[in-house]
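Worked problem 6 (solution included).
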Amino acid sequence: MKHYIWAFLWAVLVLVLISMPGDSTRGVPSFEGMDKLVHTGFFFVFTVLLYYGSIKRNKTTRPSWDSSLKVIFVSLFFAVLTEFIQLTIFTHRTAEIWDLFADAVGTGMGVFAYLVFHNSNNHDT
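Solution. The predicted structure is:
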């Protein structure tokens, strides 16, 4: 668990933020689609932190399909969980399928970053 502390702390931060009423961000500059961009960013960072923990835990030098599948599963499970929490517990928030899609896009971006950067560290020329 110690290798995943940053991912855990990020998840707690996300849970705190989704528990806040939507009108608590009044006065913050916004634009159309900002909510989806925030979702994408949250899950990009979460996925990268999960990979960081996986690399530290397993001391890997190459990308692993096993690690990738676990990270993708955990990230997408957390995405579904956050939307479910917004639907059932924090009803002052809205659960949307497009938020879930944005979460999945952020996860995919994190997977892509992992593959590019983890491979590049092993093939310096």
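Discussion: The mean pLDDT is 86.
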